[in-house]
Amino acid sequence: MSGVLKRSIEIAGHRTSITLENDFWAALREIAEEKQMTLRALVAEIDAGRGENNLSSAIRLHVLTHYRTRSSDLLNRSNGST
What pTM does this model have? Predict the structure, then answer.
C-alpha cells in the first residue's frame, strides 16, 4: 500500500488541499501526460464535473474509470472487437 500525500493546488482561483495515496498521484500525472494537460488543468476539469462529491474521491473515481476504460478497450481489441 502506498503512503498518503497531501498537496495544495490552485483551481478556479483558490488553493485547495488534496489528499491522495502516492499511487493515485502517479496515475493522475500519467493521465495528464496522456491528455497533454498539466496536472492542475486535469484536476480543474475533474473538479468542474464532480458535483457534490469530495474532490479527492472524485479524483480516485476518475483514475479508476480511466484505467477500467483502457483495460476494456485492450480486451476488446485482443478479442477482435472494435
Answer: 0.84
